[in-house]
Design brief:
The chain is α/β, with parallel strands linked by helices. The protein has a single domain, classed as Alpha/Beta hydrolase fold, catalytic domain (Rossmann fold, 3-Layer(aba) Sandwich), CATH 3.40.50.1820. 35% of the residues lie in helices and 17% in strands. The protein has an eight-stranded mixed β-sheet, sandwiched between helices. The protein is globular and about 55 Å long.
Length: 265
């Protein structure tokens, strides 16, 4: 497929080296006519969405995990990227799957959830799953990232050695200012989104402000939506093995893509 080859070539040109940081495409032998666009989070890579992509493949969904510009490369590269580039990448992925005559769903994690909301403002995905979405980051200085970036270009984050090829230890504040831009552009617009939506979050999330995912649920205009909040044992990244409830997350996603009702638990 030419579009996929172009995305992989772009990743090579931007000096992505680790194979798990490239965009991935999984095609079932017997397609169910559904596709799922997977969007990773800030300073991460497509790898964090692969566990979900693999279980979706087992259920005959075509899956495509995008790589957002500036990710899987270097923190310096990410510092020079703009929110518009991320949005364009997500939209290219969505349109490519639409052109395959598939019903397209979208799943976004963290900043990927914000990008999914933006996509739903412009297009009409079949269903949408928001993992650890937010309207506000927990750090009190996050809204001032643009100004602070001139004094403190990077924020250091503790990352295990095993995860360092896939997550940045140094996160550029200019990148966080682009997240703020995405948030600002969503202001007052969530009620116009009518896509059936599942939101999963946790009280153990140390990245986002408490209760912010619930606010998204309340403001969404969809009549068909679900909300579930895990406990303190569940971290911000819901899809990887670091989450002790990973399998429950994956099963909830599969179940929602098969059916949906308006509930909150």
């Amino acid at each position: 497929m030419q579009w996929l080859e172009q995305e992989i070539e772009l990743a090579h040109n931007e000096r992505v080296s680790h194979p798990d940081n490239f965009p991935f495409y999984l095609s079932p032998k017997n397609s169910n006519g559904q596709a799922v666009l997977l969007v990773h989070g800030f300073s991460a890579s497509p790898r964090e969405m692969l566990p979900l992509g693999e279980i979706l493949l087992q259920h005959n969904y075509t899956t495509y995990g995008v790589r957002l510009p500036g990710h899987g490369t270097t923190p310096q590269d990410l510092a020079n990227r703009r929110a518009g580039e991320w949005l364009n990448t997500v939209e290219r992925g969505y349109q490519s799957l639409i052109e395959m005559n598939l019903n397209v769903n979208v799943v976004g994690l963290s900043t990927g959830a914000l990008l999914s909301l933006h996509l739903a403002l412009k297009h009409h995905p079949n269903k949408m799953i928001l993992l650890s979405p937010f309207l506000q980051l927990q750090h009190l200085l996050a809204p001032f990232a643009s100004l602070l970036s001139h004094l403190i270009p990077y924020q250091d984050k503790e990352i295990s050695e095993a995860e360092r090829p896939f997550y940045y230890q140094r996160r550029p504040l200019k990148g966080i200012s682009q997240i703020n831009r995405l948030l600002k552009q969503l202001n007052g617009k969530l009620e116009s989104i009518i896509t059936p939506t599942l939101i999963l979050t946790s009280t153990g999330d140390a990245t986002i402000a408490k209760g912010t995912a619930s606010k998204i649920y309340q403001q969404l205009g969809s009549n068909e939506k679900q909300f579930h909040c895990y406990g303190n044992e569940v971290p911000h990244v819901l899809t990887t093995t670091e989450n002790p409830r990973q399998q429950d997350v994956l099963q909830r996603c599969i179940s929602f893509l098969g059916t949906h009702t308006a509930t909150k638990t």
